[in-house]
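fyi for ur records
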Amino acid sequence: MQIEKNTNSQARERLSLLFDDGIYNEINSMVKENDAAAAVVSAYGYVNGNAVYAFSQDKEVNGGAVGKAQAEKIAKLYELAAKTGSPVVGIHDSNGAFVDGTASSLAAYGKMLSSSAVVSGVVPQISVIAGTCAGTAAMLACSSDFVIMTKESEFFMAPNTANGSAEAAAKAGIASILCDDEKEAVLAARELVNILPVNNLAAVPMFEFAEGTPASASDVKSVISAVADADSAIEICAEYGKAAYTGFATIGGSTVGIAAAGIDGAKLTADDSGKLARFVRTCDAFSIPVVTFVDSEGFDETDVISSVKAMTTLANSYAEATTAKIAVVAGKAIGPVFAAVAGDSANSDFTYAYENAVIAPLAPVTAVEFMWHDKLSGASDLAAERNKLADEYSKTLASAVTAAENNYIDDIIAPEKTREVLLAALDILSGKRVQKLPKKHNNIQF
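which gave:
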């Protein structure tokens, strides 16, 4: 029996939004599952001129149910991606799996998970959740480098067990980008495909560009906006770990990852550390240079155990990454945060600081109590004297000048010169090559 294809299905409309001019070539289009078409459209085509494989689950066929046939169609895309070094975009919208009482559904999902794992870190993987992504399918989506969700989509392992809303997923750091509707979500996937290298051996993309506006202020977000090429920034995980920033942009037409460890001096929570660590590892997998701005009073140790674990993960992620790394201390770098993301301990290639930067092992007020307690003796206004000494400490022992004199940073730069300095540094580091010790990977905390 021949299976008729619904050429006007929502699944195919979504693929048309993804591929250039709406043109794509289907793969295994006649495959059947339970006497109907397998509830997924798999295809290849071009996104902004880059070859891309994609699948789009078809909820109009058996609710998009996943069985052996659908799993094999999706797994074949990953196999082709491994052979050709092309990104994979998955558009998820399914009510779950075919359940017949056997382990067949588990085997089907296992095949997809295994295929995704094989190309993880080899080609970019992007998941677009345009409807329901439930059960083991949620694990497949989370295996991607980036998850894009529409505001009305759902994401959960089991129904009615937890809040599976897109908003909750964004706050938990699962959703990289949250969009109003599926068109916006698919276009966001196109933007990511465009700005990322097509695989781990490809060079970062180059684009025509217009310069941003030079920054006169030293707050991190204004500096990020100024150093990036105009209208090039794509923020990742904006609703998660809000004391940190992660995103992609171009500087001088070349793709970079931009991270901020701290916003306006905020302490880093476990979520912030995890967000930064994940982002740096993603950039490193595809040899995308990382520019890190630092302005933090240290790590938030409200939850001591979680904080230490997350701090360790962050420090290991920076130390292990061999991609080009540049750090700029734009404000405060207090305590181990400097060691974790900047300087020699983080294997930073270049570390710069603004003139008013504070780089210290302890918060200035704490340092005064520890080192200059005798100077507080007899003060008529203890609080005022402590603040005065803390300011003195910040401008002397903890100053950018002292850090430069002791070879902890490479240079002191003006905020308005940041883009110029980064352009030169990124250019000289473009040929960076590092040989690692013979091992599989760091065994870091997660």
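The longest strand covers residues 254-265. thats all i got for now
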